[in-house]
Amino acid sequence: MDAKSLLQLTKKPNIKIFSGSSHQDLSQKIADRLGLELGKVVTKKLSNQETCVEIGESVQGEDVYIVQSGCGEINDNLMELLIMINACKIASAGRVTAVIPCFPYARQDKRGESRAPISAKLVADMLSTAGADHIITMDLHASQIQGFFDIPVDNLCAEPAVLKWIKEQISDWRSCTIVSPDAGAVKRATSIADRLNVDFALIHKVRKKAGEVDGMVLVGDVKYRVAILVDDMADTCGTICHAADKLLSAGATRVYAILTHGIFTGPAVTRMNSAGFEAVVVTNTVPQEDKMKHCSKIQVIDISMILAEAIRRIHSGKSVSYLFSHVPL
Questions:
Q1: What are the two backbone dihedrals, phi and then psi, of residue 187, each rounded to the nearest 5 degrees?
Q2: What number is the average pLDDT over the span 128-157?
Q3: Beta carbons within 8 Å of 249's beta carbon, 6+ residues apart
Q4: Which of 51, 98, 105, 293 has the lowest CB atom count within 10 Å?
Q5: d(Cα 264, Cα 302) in Å, to the nearest integer?
């Protein structure tokens, strides 16, 4: 075997980052943090609305990362991701990692009633079947979704970036109260309260049916305090807007909402504008540019450095556990 052939066998694979259609701005920020160019890919719809993907460069033997968030036209974007994974896999990519900042169908993680599907498990199976070798995501709605996969899943956490924002942007954060808007967010909220060494409160909500809140009971004291609502996502914002009104009526001086995934569909923007929030803070796992034009209360925490550092560490074979307690510089 000549020296050139031996070098090709021992050469470490390069990182190749491709962006889907859902969030190209985040993909570009990740690539910039790593000092790389985004890979060449063309995605288009055929006349019959089928998704067509063309990978525009060689990926043979390379370490491929495809960034596609579960937002916007979710079904089209999911199908596009599956096709991109498969296209890279059959083009002999060494490893294909799906970077999914906001995991689609994450709220359908269990059977709430008979004959209901567990769609998050179906999405996991589809990603594996398409050829994904690894999944990187952030703040899954339910951590047990990791168990739906037979491949490695890194469920990154926005908490370090959230703590940094609170300490930098809220001057009197030491006397604030972290509030969980419902029972499902208690673990997330108590973790932040413990890290800040501040008080915790809980809002218990009674639902008439899915998406409609009948009543709320505040457990804890927020009088003369800054209240910070913490949750993993908000969709139509009915819960957090009702919670904000409840906190203000209970004597809170200011109310903030901090969310990992700001999905903001339907009446969400109107409700946020009408509610008494000082600010609604979200990460950029979902694009927010259009929403920010219609709601001045929305502020964005950039998490591209967390995803970029995770990619760098996974490519180098290092642990990503550092990212659960630190924000990369």
A1: -60, -45
A2: 96
A3: none
A4: 293
A5: 18
Residues 188 and 212 in one domain: yes
User: Residues 280, 187: one domain?
Assistant: yes
pLDDT tens figures, 192-210? 999 999 999 999 877 666 5
User: In 3-state terms, what secondary structure has residue 168?
Assistant: helix
> How big is the chain, counted in residues?
329
Examine residue 22 and state whether it is found in any structural domain, yes or no.
Answer: yes
Q: Which residue reads 């990978």 in tokens?
A: 55
Contact 65, 18 (CB under 8 A): yes
Half-sphere exposure of 65 (CA within 13 A, CB side): 30
Which residues have CB under 8 Å from 12's CB, separation 6+? none
Handedness of CA 46, 47, 48, 49 (dihedral sign): positive
Number of domains in the chain: 2
Lowest-pLDDT choice from 197-211, 242-256, 314-328: 197-211
Among 277, 219, 274, CA closest to 250: 219
**Count of CA atoms in the C-beta half-sphere (13 A) of 202:** 11
Would you list the DSSP string of 182-248? Answer: SGGGHHHHHHHHHHHT-EEEEEEEEEEETTEEEEEEEES--TTSEEEEEEEEESS-HHHHHHHHHHH
319 class by beta-carbon count within 10 Å (0-12 exposed, 13-18 middle, 19+ buried): exposed
236: three-class secondary structure by DSSP: coil
CATH number reported for the structural domain that contains residue 290 in this entry: 3.40.50.2020
Domain that holds residue 106: 10-156
pLDDT of the residue at 119: 96
